[in-house]
From TrEMBL:
GO cellular component term, pick one: mitochondrion
Family per record: Belongs to the AB hydrolase superfamily.
Every AB hydrolase-1 domain range: 48-291
Keywords: Hydrolase
SUPFAM superfamilies: alpha/beta-Hydrolases (SSF53474)
One annotated GO molecular function: carboxylic ester hydrolase activity
Protein name in UniProt: Abhydrolase domain-containing protein IMO32
N-terminal signal peptide: none
Length: 313
């Protein structure tokens, strides 16, 4: 089934109040990122895009999406992912504050927010915290509500821990894939998770008590921190759409075989994001890899029709 865009009715709402953070919060983390500049100066009059990955992902997963958008695209590594620093706090509020600091440091004006899964909730949190600061919002396969994560995510953490704890140490990606395959049969998801593997020095104690130094594969993401954060990642920091609302253009993308954006959640989405439209893709949760071309074409067409047209008027 090709991707389709269905227009949802606008919702009447009271005036939203901006979210204000306290000064007692820890300092924001400086995020690793890449700037993909649009060719031929096409970006000069167009809002840039901030692209945010999901749990266990990184900016590397989104490189192909940066093409053909005719505007500058910033791909980010959120905290505890990719090349960004690690921190024991892993909440949507903390991640949003990191991105807000990044926007301020880079002097980015009114970007379009695109995020998948965990990144979708970060994008929605950003939009609800500062509704006037963003040109458009595109959350991919996640909704602004408290909903338990699929048990797969906890199982993935446990499987990755088995790889790190394996004796003898795992030295080949094929060995790691064989361990992971016992939990996740999909080769595509295995490869996605294993992009986090890096070579690192380890010490191994032999039977005679001697210690040898060698190189083995380790995950660059802090598995313990992310395991503890799973309950927070099922949550959403905003509960009342009468208190915080984003009234800018919003495209909610969902995989029709995924449960994260159900039909029952659409009324609440409409209250938080009154101008939302819906892009359905015939796939599961990993929309941007399972149906990349449908996703790319649907998002690109929507940006040209809704965002760029608004800027010309």
């Amino acid at each position: 089934m090709p991707a389709r865009i269905a227009l949802r009715a606008r919702w009447h709402s009271a005036t939203s109040r901006p979210f204000s953070s306290t000064s007692s919060r820890p300092a924001a983390i400086e995020l690793a990122h890449t700037i993909h500049e649009a060719p031929d100066g096409q970006h000069s009059q167009k809002s840039p895009i901030l692209l945010m990955h999901g749990l266990f992902g990184s900016q590397r997963n989104n490189r192909t999406m940066t093409k053909d958008l005719s505007r500058n695209v910033y791909t980010l590594d959120l905290r505890n992912h990719g090349d960004s620093p690690h921190d024991p706090v892993h909440t949507y509020t903390a991640m949003a504050e990191d991105v807000e600091a990044f926007i301020k440091t880079q002097k980015i004006s009114a970007p379009i927010l695109i995020g998948h899964s965990m990144g979708a909730k970060v994008a929605m949190t950003l939009a609800l915290r500062q509704p006037k600061s963003y040109t458009a919002l595109i959350p991919v396969d996640n909704a602004p509500l408290d909903a338990a994560l699929k048990s797969d995510f906890g199982a993935y953490v446990n499987a990755m821990k088995k790889i790190e704890d394996h004796r003898p140490p795992v030295k080949k990606q094929s060995e790691a894939a064989a361990i992971l395959a016992k939990t996740e049969p999909s080769v595509a998801i295995q490869q996605f998770l294993l992009t986090n593997l890096v070579k690192a020095p380890v010490s191994t104690t032999q039977a005679d008590g001697t210690t040898t130094a060698e190189t083995a594969l380790r995950f660059r993401i802090p598995l313990g921190t992310l395991a503890k954060a799973l309950p927070d990642l099922a949550d959403f920091p905003f509960k009342d759409p009468d208190v915080a609302r984003y009234e800018g253009p919003t495209l909610v993308v969902r995989g029709t075989q995924s449960h994260y954006v159900s039909d029952e959640s659409l009324p609440l989405i409409g209250r938080f994001f009154p101008r939302f439209e819906l892009l359905d893709c015939d796939c599961g949760h990993w929309v941007m890899s399972e149906k990349f071309e449908d996703f790319r074409q649907g998002v690109g067409a929507w940006i040209r029709r809704v965002v760029d047209q608004d800027l010309q008027e």
